[in-house]
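Session log. Operator J.P. requested a structure for one protein chain; no other inputs attached. Running the standard single-chain path with token output.
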Amino acid sequence: MQFYGEISADGEGRRVEGTAVRYGDRTGPRSAGRHVIEAGALTIAKEALATLNHRDDRLLGKLGEGLAFEDSAKQLRTTIDMPEGVSYAEDALQLIRQRRLNGLSLEIEPRKTRQDGELYVIEDGLVHAVSVVPKPAFGMSRIDRFQALGSVAGKIPTGVKLGCECSGSAECHYAYFQEDAFSSLDQVIGKTAEEVRDLIDAGDVQDVLAVASNQSEPLGSLASGSLQFTKEGAAIGWSLQVPDTHVGRGVLEGMGAVSYFGRPYLSQSESEGTETDGVYTWTRAVIRMLIVSPTDRSEGWDAISLTRERNAAMKPEEVLAWA
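Structure written below.
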């Protein structure tokens, strides 16, 4: 079970800290029942880890070795001393300083719970790990600054046969999205960043990450306001503010050499479709990540475009971010 909190960097130092969970906060999708943790319910496992994006091969610290917790009657806070000379940690630290990566995910093993109506109360839980993730915290917002390299934009076509790298059979090489397949985005299209944030906090909408190739190479997120979706005719349009990080620079440099595409990575459990004659037709497509990368399966896709390069107008500016 995962609970989400907030994180921030200690100035120009390497220490990041934040509230992993506030006791009494409710979390989880309404369909699965909300959970709440009682004060004093949590015990930290001796082998607790700090990781990046829930990946054990992206280790940031161990309990007593760069990772510490501070428990109180109101909340559980964590401190991580980011390792030096490790590329993924350096990128993560820069993203945290820019407020582009500002989430904490606490991995808890519930050992004793009780049900109170639709609410599940955790009375005893064991904390196995805390992970730095591109997902914001509950219920708090602030104005922050970040440096963007530029903005890119693209479309996800519907009603067109598209080259794909899908999970169908070995004979399946194409995807087809029905026009209303992305109806799960209707709740966020046309909404402000704050409205989207409220929907995510309420569990009515899940965050969508923008990544360069996988979850360990984050570029932005729907919740942070750096990724936005629009309706453009029958297609789903999207735009992304590219961060000034190693990953962001790699994307923009790569766009100068080859075509890049923005392709959705779908939730297999929530999406619906059927495969016929080598084409997987999606009647419901729930996006979990937007993968911004080159591909050799580009049939039907339009290459993404650089809509705004960094210039005097794109110096660090105040934007809505979430902490």
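Operator note: Residues 2-140 form one domain.
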